[in-house]
Amino acid sequence: MTVSVRKRSRWRLNSGELHIWSASLDEQEPYLDRFTALLSEDELERADRFRFTRDRARYIVGRGLLRTLLGGYAAQDPGALLFAYNEYGKPELPEWPDLRFNLAHSESRALFALARSTDVGVDLERRRPEFAQENVAEHFFSPYEVEVLRGLADHEQADAFLACWTRKEAFLKARGDGLSLPLHDFDVTLAPGKPAALLRTAWSRTEPQEWRLYDLSGFYPGYAAALSVRWNDGRIVIRHGQDSLLPAVNRTN
């Protein structure tokens, strides 16, 4: 697997290649009106359900950026894109079924993953050390993962907890099953120094061989981030830098 970091946008996305974009939702709020104009009626209705103005703005910016990116790769008007959703709520573009994508956000940071003809999922969580000391792991992680987590030194458990959580969420999002698969029915690595990997699923002996997990946390200080993709190997391009999405936004003028 090859990872490269670029600051300038390119719209070509080849088979066997995956692009990761990032953005601060708050710092792109000056484009709020422009993004609002791109959204569909159902997206605007969902935005209006948010109780707090900041959360509403972040949702609009996130969806607007997603449309801008997809429009760029599909060479289409971002506002004209039509989404369909599977029974678990995972979105897709029926007119461009080979263009796969996923969005994750935590507070003001968002990640977008795009690939051709392969399932992809991404997850992002703001680092909160107190999470590891709660009983979340015992309720949701597999017995193997809980044993590994609680066997670590206290100062290692916070990062290990978030590594486990984001890897599991990215895998579920890539499969598109939502919460239909219990988190404790599959194992991922989480110990410090262990590469990200899917180790076991309760429903298939062979499925772990179809997937690759990647830890992206090093690219986003203050956050834990993970990527899941159904391939044997490929090329990941990280769109790095705070201005990484500004060229895409400006093309919607």
Short key terms for the protein model shown above:
2 domains; 5-stranded mixed β-sheet; 253 residues; Ribosomal Protein L22, Chain A; disordered N terminus; 25% strand; alpha+beta; 3-stranded antiparallel β-sheet
Tell me what the structure shows.
- This protein has 253 residues and is of the alpha+beta class.
- The chain folds into two domains: 1-118 and 234-253, Ribosomal Protein L22, Chain A (Alpha-Beta Complex), CATH 3.90.470.20; 120-230, Alpha-Beta Complex (Ribosomal Protein L22, Chain A).
- It has seven helices and twelve strands.
- The chain has helices at residues 32-38, 41-48, 53-74, 136-140, 143-150, 154-175, 246-250, and strands spanning 2-6, 17-24, 84-85, 91-92, 99-106, 109-116, 120-126, 186-188, 198-201, 212-215, 223-229, 235-239.
- The protein has a five-stranded mixed beta sheet, with helices on one face. A three-stranded antiparallel beta sheet has the order 7-11-10. A two-stranded antiparallel ribbon has the order 3-4.
- A hairpin with a 2-residue loop joins strand 5 and strand 6.
- It is globular and about 50 Å long.
How large is the share of residues in beta strands? 15-25%
Strand order of the largest sheet: 1-12-2-6-5
Named at the architecture level, the CATH assignment of the largest domain is: Alpha-Beta Complex
Determine the N-to-C terminus distance: 36 Å
| Secondary structure category | alpha+beta
Largest sheet entry = 5 strands, mixed
Report the uncertain regions. Answer: 2-10, 246-253
Shape: globular
Q: What is the percent of helical residues?
A: 25-40%
What is the succession of H and E elements?
EEHHHEEEEEHHHEEEEEH
Number of structural domains: 2
> What gyration radius follows from the Cα positions, in whole Å?
18 Å
